[in-house]
Amino acid sequence: MQFEGQLAQAQCQHPFAVLGPQFNGTNTFVQYWHPGAQAVEVVDAVSAEPLGSLTSVNGDGLFNGVIEGLSSASAYQLKVTTDDGESLVADPYQFQAEAYHAVHFIDHEPQNLYRQAGAQRITLERDGFNAEAIRFAVFAPNASAVSVIGDFNGWDGRCHPMQKTDMGYWVLVVPGLAEGTRYKYQIKDANGHQLPHKADPLGFYAEQYPSHASLIYDHERYEWHDAKWLEKAAKQNKYQTPMSVYEVHLGSWKRPGNPEQRYLSYRELAEELVAYVTEMGYTHIELLPVSEFPFDGSWGYQPVGLFAPTSRFGSPDDFKFFVDTCHQNDIGVIIDWVPAHFPEDGHGLARFDGSHVYEYADPRRGWHPDWNSCIYDFGKDTVRQFLVANALYWLEHFHVDGLRVDAVASMLYLDYSREDGEWIPNVHGGNENLEAISLLKWMNEEVYRHFPHAMTIAEESTSFPKVSRPVFDGGLGFGFKWNMGWMHDSLHYISKDPAYRTYHHSEMTFSMVYAFDENFVLPISHDEVVHGKGSLIGKMPGDEWQQAANHRCYAAFMYGHPGKKLNFMGNEIGQSSEWNHDASVDWRLLDFDKHQGIQRLYRDLNHLYKALPALHQRDHEPAGFDWIDLHNHEQSVFSFVRHSLNGTQQVYVISNMTPAPRENFRIGVQQPGEYQLVLNTDDSVYWGSGAATPKQCVAEPVPWNHQPYSINVNLPPLATLFIVFNKE
């Protein structure tokens, strides 16, 4: 028979047509396939009473026979004899209806994908029979055959051929598989050629090298304890509350003392990292990508398992514990999300069924020259659902508070990093990727519709309009956008010798021309302290003392400037060397007063930023900011004022970007009364010079800087001051 050869060669597309029960009145014909089986007996699944034996058809593992009294409402098991002995199994092919349920309405809502596809735990119920099972469903529309393989069948693709459906999904229910069971898919392309074994694109848990196998995982087991946090987050206005983000690469924040252990686990990080972030006063932790990835050197930006937190640091439950612990300590969690590219690893998505299922087929659209990786086909409905579902998945199942979307510019432009002739214009002849734009809008709409307390943040380096404006207003729909212009200009300025800063003054003021065009986050991220760029303190000019003073002055200027804040790990201690993903932050530096002082400043900045409403409530409103003097390029002094939402508080920020102290420096202020110095980056506790600077001063009716009043202050060298005025 033709189907016998297909089974033996793992080339059967429709096993439901030939395997399992075929009902005909009171007599049921049962056909079972088990390579290596010597005898097969059918027993009642509830009573275990024998119902009859199946006869070997050809000696290769195919058995069949007529079983009386077996109905479609009942279930049976098979007592199978092999060289290894006797085992009792439930025939997967009797659960056809349950398998087909995987594709019922799967395309109606994005989240249906991760609720129905992949390896889902289900309960089988029939006439007193009740059993746990795993329902497998994988999208491989151009495959000629797909089998689920794993520890349960000796990784033999002949044993569990899957059924192809009209939607391009292959489905099968396998009873009795335990959580943690390893599995993959054996796929043959349209011409019958076997491909490398593929991990589950919807796999919730993945094993590390060398297997890269998917593992069965139950999302319902973990018990969350963050209800108070979620309730609080739902009531907050994200734009009017403080957001100081500590960006972390989990593999190199701190290394274990145990030489046998390469990384801190999620649970160890939940203890050590959360305690540190709490003490330092950050409001959020942002994690470089945690979706499973094969190559450490990619830092996670070449993900393969988008639905699995990397098992380098523990299980999915362990990652949930980490997020839960953050929330119980009033810390939000943002993760990097990478829809811009994916690598060609054999077990991954590239040419998944031998064809371009997930990526653009034309390399002018489907291959990224910068990263030597594939690009998703943003116009294909199944790919669009896959990506949007993944965004929602992290918010639903792992309670993360935000998604920072990597490399958005590379998605928006068809000619990104390409020369003429290396890209294909859109239907209008332009360079915008209309499909990617549409996808990003849909993703943002779905995120905010289902999780209004969450946020999406775009890393977008061009002047593409309205990135952080709602879709209904013609925007891309992101909640926030990284201010790459501010980052580039301000770092370029601060790296200059103070003697030359007078010629670059506008680099520090230009950001205010566009500061409220988007909802900006000010980032000093991992990208600025790697690949030969040096550390943040290493960018600073001068001798050791001047470098540290420049670092402190710049940090406080950043915290005073409108926009939410983000700093990469190590910045806060003045790490001397640039970031190395294979080594820990150099915590030994805290043995020295200089680095203790820098760390203390970042801690105080975070706590002040949260405590002073004027520094965060109107980050995205022009009415929250006024220049006092933006033209003092000769002295390289910047001064501005921040306003609270109700107008009762003002914070004056004054930065002296030269090593020359300026005594009795007059600054215009807007109100009469007493002014309080709350931060001086030159204070001796920060390893500053400790130059005398009065803690209080009273405004005089002396007009200055176009203001009706003024105060006299002493500006220390290379220092930023925060001076607060509170209305009674």
Chain-wise SSE layout:
Blueprint: H1 2-8, E1 20-24, E2 27-33, E3 39-44, E4 50-56, E5 62-68, E6 76-82, E7 85-90, H2 96-100, H3 112-116, E8 118-126, E9 129-139, E10 145-150, E11 163-164, E12 169-175, E13 182-188, E14 214-215, H4 227-235, E15 244-248, H5 266-280, E16 284-287, E17 291-292, E18 305-309, H6 316-328, E19 332-337, H7 363-366, E20 367-368, E21 373-374, H8 381-397, E22 402-405, H9 408-412, H10 434-450, E23 455-458, E24 480-482, H11 484-494, H12 506-509, H13 511-514, E25 520-524, H14 544-560, E26 564-568, H15 593-611, E27 625-629, E28 637-643, E29 649-656, E30 662-669, E31 674-680, E32 696-698, E33 709-715, E34 719-726
Structure commentary:
This protein is of the alpha+beta class and 728 residues long. Helix content is 21%, strand content 26%. The strands form 8 sheets. The chain has an 8-stranded parallel barrel with strand order 15-16-19-22-23-24-25-26. A hairpin with a 2-residue loop joins strand 8 and strand 9. The protein starts with a helix and ends with a strand. Pathway: Glycan biosynthesis; glycogen biosynthesis.
In short:
With 728 residues, the protein is α+β, with helices and mostly antiparallel strands. 21% of the residues lie in helices and 26% in strands.
